[in-house]
Specification:
With about 475 residues, the chain is of the alpha/beta class. It has 20 helices and 14 strands. The strands form 5 sheets. A 4-stranded mixed beta sheet has the order 2-1-3-13. Strands 5-8-4-11 form a 4-stranded mixed beta sheet. Strand 9 and strand 10 form a beta hairpin. The two termini are about 25 Å apart.
Length: about 475
């Protein structure tokens, strides 16, 4: 901690070079910038490819060498960053740049570990980024930039078009039936009944249509659509608004269809459920489509190819047009003037239209500048776009441009509070669905098996329990 404070004091005494100051870099004595990320697969390949390009061009010219290091998962990265900041035994040395969601960046900032980048960017440069992406890193509300927007994502509805088309041909269902949450629930019920009828000798074996990643997003964005902000944050403190009527609507459009078998979640991610044929549609991050399977493997004997379709993320029919803003940004560790300056130079290069679009079409993330977050700009970029990615970006760009994007502001213990929203309803739904499934197997009808869970009393008990947990993090 003493070392961090010394670095901060040194950094505070220096002036950023955003308004035209002299560069502290020397090409003859290059500065090494280490970047920690949590990318894997195609995303890591795309990121590392651009790092290599930077090092061979602009980096070489200016005297910057960027080294990329994947820390594995998001949780692994967060753990490693906090261990480094706290000087824990065995922790690696703090990187110059690390990927961070707002809650992690806020916690690191409270330990004095993050540089404010506003002085390294001109007002004109800042204005080229989408406003809400810049505002995410303003923890104090005074115009700080503690998170540099790197690549963002939103949520989309991803569909196994192959199996959907069979259902649609026999029932007359259309994509309009997936346009809002209430219609989605009705369509999921119809799909369950349609699949159940395929085996008339086996009662209650209908299949789920839909699953969802990131339940906290469902709770937070759904509430915003209905006029309630669950976590209202000012000066790093959270004021809770867990409005019962709003939460009941969230309950009725997720928990109830889940316990009845219309929705499902068994794999770690819903793309896993697509792969085993457990669902044929899910809401997830636009970046998740890179993991969409090419085949369904129900068993060693049953496997077949599928086609992916991407549709807008459904919201409440009578709700406001809100969409989630997600995707970690890059936090720059407090350091010497040359280290922070070099870090920002790399980030500015990476988020220039050409590089940011190239990364987007290979990763499923969205560009962070206004001019790049445009379908025509992406199409005209000359970068080869796969069919999957073309479908994804076509929808995701529209979602960002035609909705109010939202993410919670950072606050103390924000990650813990969000975790309650992530698991409270979904875990209860999984547990209670298991009971319903046992009752179905014993010969009860679906109505009989699920009746206990579809009552006001069931909701009230869950609501009060969840409310108390959330209140622990208020203020």
């Amino acid at each position: 901690m003493v070392a961090v404070c010394m670095v901060l004091a040194m950094a505070a005494a220096l002036t950023g070079c955003g308004e035209g100051g002299k560069s502290p870099l020397d090409p003859k004595n290059p500065v090494t910038v280490e970047v920690w990320n949590y990318y894997n697969g195609d995303q890591l390949t795309a990121f590392d490819g651009l790092v290599k390009e930077f090092n061979e061009t602009v980096g070489k010219e200016k005297g910057i060498i960027v080294k990329s290091s994947s820390q594995g998962s998001v949780n692994d990265l967060e753990t490693n960053v906090m261990a480094s900041l706290k000087g824990e035994v065995g922790a690696a040395e703090m990187p110059n740049i690390f990927m961070a969601y707002a809650d992690t960046a806020y916690a690191a900032d409270q330990l004095g570990g993050i540089a404010d980048l506003r002085g390294y960017l001109t007002n004109e440069e800042i204005s080229t980024y989408i406003d809400s992406y810049i505002e995410e890193g303003d923890f104090s509300g005074k115009g700080e930039i503690k998170i540099f927007p790197m690549a963002k994502s939103t949520e989309v509805l991803v569909l196994n078009k192959t199996d959907w088309d069979v259902f649609a041909a026999e029932t007359g269902a259309s994509y309009d039936d997936l346009a809002d949450l209430e219609s989605l629930v009705r369509t999921a019920k119809a799909y369950y009944e349609w699949t159940d009828a395929k085996t008339p000798d086996i009662a209650g074996d209908g299949k789920a249509l839909y699953g969802r990643d990131a339940m906290a997003n469902y709770m937070l964005i759904g509430s915003m659509q209905l006029g309630t902000e669950i976590f209202r944050v000012a000066d790093g403190k959270m004021k809770l608004d867990f409005d019962k009527a709003t939460v009941r609507k969230l309950w009725d459009n997720y928990y109830i269809p889940f316990v009845k078998g219309y929705f499902a979640a068994t794999g770690r991610f819903r793309s896993d459920d697509i792969k085993i044929g457990n669902v044929i549609a899910y809401v997830g991050s636009s970046s998740s489509t890179t993991f969409f399977p090419d085949t369904v493997n129900k068993s060693d004997e049953e496997s077949y190819p599928i086609e992916m379709e991407v549709l807008p993320c459904p919201g409440f029919a009578d709700g406001a047009a809100y969409a989630v803003q997600q995707g970690a940004g890059m936090a720059v560790a407090a350091g010497s003037e040359a280290e922070v300056y070099a870090s920002v130079e790399f980030l500015k290069w990476f988020t220039a239209d050409e590089q940011n679009i190239a990364f987007s079409v290979r990763s499923g993330y969205l560009p962070v500048k206004r001019t790049a977050n445009d379908k025509a700009a992406i199409t005209d970029s000359g970068v080869e776009i796969s069919q999957k990615m073309g479908k994804t970006l076509n929808v995701a760009v529209d979602m960002v441009n035609n909705h109010t994007t939202y993410t919670t502001r950072a606050f103390e213990n924000g990650a813990k509070a969000r975790s309650i929203l992530e698991y409270a309803m979904s875990d209860r739904a999984v547990e209670d669905r298991a009971v319903v499934a046992e009752r179905l197997a014993s010969g009860q009808s679906l109505e009989e098996a699920a009746a206990e869970f579809c009552t006001d009393a069931c909701f009230e008990a869950w609501y009060e329990e969840t409310l108390k947990k959330l209140q622990e993090y208020e203020g």
